[in-house]
Amino acid sequence: GPLPSACGRERRLGIMGGTFDPIHYGHLVTAEQAREALELDLVLFMPAGSPAFKRGKSVSTPEDRYAMTVLATAANPAFYACRFEIDRKGITYTVDTLRALRDYYASDVELFFITGADAILDIVSWRDAEQIAGLATLIAATRPGYDISQAQERIEASGFPFDVRYIEIPALAISSTNIRARVRANKSVRYLTSESVIGFIRKNRLYLDGCPDEGDTR
Ligand code: ATP
Ligand code: MG
């Protein structure tokens, strides 16, 4: 099925959502260190089907983004590439995914939603933010030296009961936007993501044409 069946052992479940166009070491290091810091049993990598924030932009097909996610996560027994959002039609909202996971898993399974620090800044404006707060603990990945006070102030001002754990990830200024731009410009993307993902990008001739997109910080 689209979700890994609860085999009775997983109690602390991480969810790493993203466009993953392509998945890269920023995502993987973040998920791994979140897993370790919060003692997660499993991290679901959830490529977005029709990303709510990327309407109107050209995005690789869901199957290609899912395939790269499988390749990049294959060797980690605590990582699972999840088809759930790409098998749903329409725009993906975090709250819908969290609700579905909440319904699917036993009530003693705790949900942890992992995001980059950039996303945490506007989480209070996400659809049904207050419900998100009740469904999952947020894990916000920051860089060493990153000032979390702005995010904390916004969350406090919202009045929503968010439980946010901040974890410091060693500086990783890797983004999918930069990888796509490098592929298009025929520059090296080695060591920014796994060899298997790079091979898939080359084999399927991803990111070679299309208009160069602005550096999206999301
Ligand atoms: P794009 O450049 O196309 O926006 P991206 O690299 O930001 O892509 P996304 O798929 O948009 O990747 O991000 C998915 C999740 O991973 C988001 O929560 C985002 O904040 C987080 N993230 C992205 N890049 C990093 C990174 N280098 N380190 C930690 N978290 C990251
Ligand atoms: Mg982004």
UniProtKB/TrEMBL annotation:
> What Pfam families does this protein map onto?
CTP_transf_like (PF01467)
Q: Does the keyword NAD apply?
A: yes
Q: List, alphabetically, the InterPro entries matched.
A: Cyt_trans-like, NadD/NMNAT, Rossmann-like_a/b/a_fold
Identify the EC number(s). 2.7.7.18
Q: What class of enzyme is it?
A: transferase
* Biological-process GO terms, alphabetical: NAD+ biosynthetic process
Q: Which residues form the Cytidyltransferase-like domain?
A: 15-182
What are the record keywords, sorted? ATP-binding, NAD, Nucleotide-binding, Nucleotidyltransferase, Pyridine nucleotide biosynthesis, Transferase
Instruction: State the Gene Ontology terms under molecular function.
Output: ATP binding; nicotinate-nucleotide adenylyltransferase activity
Which reaction equation describes what this protein catalyses?
nicotinate beta-D-ribonucleotide + ATP + H(+) = deamido-NAD(+) + diphosphate
- So, what pathway does this thing act in? Cofactor biosynthesis; NAD(+) biosynthesis; deamido-NAD(+) from nicotinate D-ribonucleotide: step 1/1
Q: Which SUPFAM superfamilies match?
A: Nucleotidylyl transferase (SSF52374)
Recorded family membership: Belongs to the NadD family.
So what does this one do? Catalyzes the reversible adenylation of nicotinate mononucleotide (NaMN) to nicotinic acid adenine dinucleotide (NaAD).
Protein name, entry field: Probable nicotinate-nucleotide adenylyltransferase
